[in-house]
């Protein structure tokens, strides 16, 4: 048994009477893509929020690389190796793609309390950020403002930001959304490529992509993980068909 | 046609952006006018230029919080006033030859500006650390209101402190001293303020371009991004707030010297609003914006104020125009949108 990189144990979260997360446990092992699926309102966002650190769970724990990070801040979890992308890209829009990645590079290099040296003439910082952007396929687009990039490109920038922190695990929230067929295929290929280095917890609506990429799938319904298994298990499950895929599937 | 570029190539000419040209022009005018006024013996205009310069420093301070860090503080009069009172209290004890405090260790007054500036900035930094630590837990309108509330607390504290004049304020009978120069001379004092303004702008520019500045700028643009990139926003913003307050505090110390007086009005919320007007009028986030904003404000107050006491109506209209039609302030109107890399 390989040790999981990311482990979620018995997570509970309620908002008033609404139980958004009910005793969810899942893990992410090296070299794997673990997909998290579920209909709208299943509590995917709440779960992601708790894993990334925006939402404090009522009980349960989140373990990253054998370290309990349940009470750590978002920033601290990022530094410790939890990279993520958002459903709607969250970047500094006014500045270039390179600037966005430079921030992650500087965080990975240590303190941001450096007040005098100018980042624009810091060739090493700029070059490292540029390398990450080239790695995700944005070579030649480094110095364009994020607000002028397409949705797909923004997602690539986010992934570059995450990779620059040398993450141990990636949390990708609907990375295929708004990409279009070609973008979707490119991203699928890219995820295949990084999978051996960094395992991915993938939240995705695009079922084709999920079935193509995932090693394991966990189905979330009504805040609870009702089923977890291989692609074939999920495809075959009557429970999932009923709860998620609908009658015709 | 082989060549499409028909314009003669200028060689060895560094390309200045329009904003740089405007910056140089503004600073040149600000420097030239008092030099000229002094040469014809009109110290009144020299002092007017000093006032603009001092207000500009206060604006540079606030602009660092708003323009770089996105922290819309409506309480910067607190720091302006603390700077002023530090000057007033130091001069008071120096003049009376009494102690500010005797226990646990004796602190006397001083009439040395360099010491006063440092003390003023340190006290403002400590005050900002306390105010920021609480205020920065809120956002948006709440942050605006809580900074205002803190400034009002300090305002009422000053009013109720009879030792230092309470409501009547405190006169500084003799301007404090600087080594080697005669600070009593209007022109010398202006030049001192001018150099400090350049210093404040330089520091602000350097910090904005540093790693810290990159983090602070991201806190303004997208705090989620900053945290996701592994940098905790709170300490970054708090540090930015403290630096901003220290610069504004220095301006307050100079303001007290210029007027030979400190009073609670330095701490009032009107003052907070005025400093914000310098920033907005000149252009939020534009390095030299507060210089333009402060100059417009002082000139409107002086010249339109001479003609009608309702000059603030005009100021209001100008502000309205800038906010509605030129979101980059006057600097945005002249030099276009701010450029990022």
Structural summary, described in words:
The complex is a heterodimer of chains A (249) and B (341). Chain A has 249 residues and is an alpha/beta fold. In chain A, 36% of the residues lie in helices and 24% in strands. Chain A has helices at 44-52, 74-79, 97-108, 123-135, 151-164, 180-194, 207-213, 231-236, 238-245; strands at residues 6-15, 18-28, 33-37, 59-64, 67-68, 82-85, 169-173, 200-203, 216-221, 224-229. In chain A, the strands form two sheets. A six-stranded mixed sheet of chain A has the order 6-7-8-3-9-10, with helices on both faces. In chain A, strands 2-1-4-5 form a four-stranded antiparallel sheet, with helices on one face. Chain A starts with 5 loop residues before the first strand and ends with a helix. Chain B has helices at residues 18-39, 43-68, 77-96, 113-135, 140-159, 186-209, 211-221, 223-228, 233-259, 269-282, 289-307, 311-325, 329-335; strands spanning 99-101, 107-108, 170-171, 261-262. Chain B has a two-stranded antiparallel sheet. A two-stranded antiparallel ribbon of chain B has the order 3-4. The longest helix of chain B is centred in the last third of the chain and has 27 residues, at 233-259. Chain A binds chain B through residues 52, 73-76, 78-79, 84, 86, 90-96, 99-100, 102-104, 106-108, 112-120, 143, 145, 161-162, 165, and chain B through 206-207, 209-215, 217-218, 221-222, 224-233, 235-236, 239, 340-341.
Measured distance between first and last alpha carbons of chain A: 34 Å
Q: Structural class of the secondary structure composition of chain A?
A: alpha/beta
Number of helices of chain A: 9
Largest interface, chains and sizes? A-B, 38 and 28 residues
The strand line-up of the biggest sheet of chain A is 6-7-8-3-9-10
Uncertain segments of chain B are 1-7
Alpha carbon gyration radius of chain B: 21 Å
What's the total helix number of chain B? 13
Quaternary organization: heterodimer
Which structural class do the helices and strands of chain B define? mainly alpha
Largest sheet of chain B: 2 strands, antiparallel
Biggest pleated-sheet summary of chain A: 6 strands, mixed
Beta fraction of chain B:
under 5%
Beta-strand content of chain A: 15-25%
Distance between the first and last residues' Cα of chain B: 34 Å
């Amino acid at each position: 048994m390989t040790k999981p990189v990311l482990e979620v144990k018995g997570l509970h979260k309620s908002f008033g009477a609404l139980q958004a997360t009910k005793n969810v446990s899942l893990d992410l092992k090296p070299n794997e893509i673990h997909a998290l699926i579920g209909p709208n309102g299943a509590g995917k966002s709440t779960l992601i929020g708790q894993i990334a650190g925006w939402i404090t769970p009522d009980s349960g724990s989140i373990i990253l690389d054998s370290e309990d990070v349940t009470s750590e801040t978002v920033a601290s979890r990022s530094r410790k190796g939890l990279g993520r992308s958002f459903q709607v890209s969250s970047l500094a829009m006014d500045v270039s793609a390179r600037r966005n990645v430079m921030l992650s590079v500087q965080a990975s290099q240590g303190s941001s309390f450096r007040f005098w040296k100018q980042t624009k003439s810091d060739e090493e910082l700029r070059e490292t950020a540029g390398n990450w952007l080239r790695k995700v396929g944005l070579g030649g687009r480094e110095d364009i403002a994020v607000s002028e990039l397409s949705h797909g490109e923004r997602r690539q920038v986010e992934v570059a930001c995450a990779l620059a922190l040398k993450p141990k695990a990636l949390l990708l929230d609907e990375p295929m959304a708004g990409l279009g067929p070609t973008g979707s295929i490119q991203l699928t290929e890219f995820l295949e490529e990084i999978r051996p280095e960094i395992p991915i917890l993938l939240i995705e609506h695009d079922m084709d992509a999920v079935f193509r990429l995932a090693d394991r799938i966990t189905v979330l319904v009504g805040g609870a993980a009702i089923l977890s298994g291989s692609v074939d298990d999920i495809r075959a499950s009557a429970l999932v068909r009923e709860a998620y895929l609908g009658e015709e599937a | 046609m082989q060549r499409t570029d028909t314009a003669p190539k200028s060689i060895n000419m560094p390309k200045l952006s329009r904003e740089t040209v405007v910056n140089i022009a503004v600073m040149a005018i600000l420097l030239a006018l008092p030099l000229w006024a002094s040469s014809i013996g009109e110290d009144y205009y020299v002092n007017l230029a000093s006032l603009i310069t001092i207000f500009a420093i206060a604006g540079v301070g606030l602009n660092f919080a708003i323009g770089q860090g996105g922290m819309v503080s409506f309480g910067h009069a607190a720091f302006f006033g603390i700077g002023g009172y530090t000057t007033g209290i130091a001069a008071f004890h120096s003049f009376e030859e009494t102690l500010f405090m005797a226990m646990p260790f004796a602190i006397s007054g001083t009439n040395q500006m360099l010491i006063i500036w440092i003390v003023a900035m340190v006290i403002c930094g400590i005050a900002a650390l306390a105010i920021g630590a609480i205020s920065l837990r809120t956002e948006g309108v709440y942050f605006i209101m809580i900074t205002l509330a803190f400034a009002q607390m300090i305002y009422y504290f000053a009013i109720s402190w009879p030792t230092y004049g309470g409501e009547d304020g405190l006169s500084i009978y003799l301007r404090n001293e600087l080594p080697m120069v005669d600070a009593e001379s209007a022109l010398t004092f202006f030049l001192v303020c001018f150099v400090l303004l350049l210093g404040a702008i330089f520091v602000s520019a350097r910090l904005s371009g540093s790693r810290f500045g990159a983090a602070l700028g991201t806190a303004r643009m997208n705090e989620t991004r900053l945290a996701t990139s592994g940098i905790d926003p709170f300490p970054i913003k708090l540090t930015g707030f403290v630096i901003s307050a220290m610069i504004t505090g220095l301006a307050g110390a100079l303001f007290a010297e210029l007027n030979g007086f400190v009073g609670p009005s330095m701490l009032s919320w009107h003052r907070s609003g005025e400093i914000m007007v310098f920033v907005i009028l000149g252009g939020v986030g534009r390095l030299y914006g507060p210089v333009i904003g402060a100059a417009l404000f002082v000139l409107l107050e002086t010249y339109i104020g001479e003609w009608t006491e309702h000059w603030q109506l005009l100021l209001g209209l100008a502000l309205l125009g800038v906010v509605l039609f030129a979101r980059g302030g006057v600097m945005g109107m002249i030099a276009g949108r701010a450029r990022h890399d």
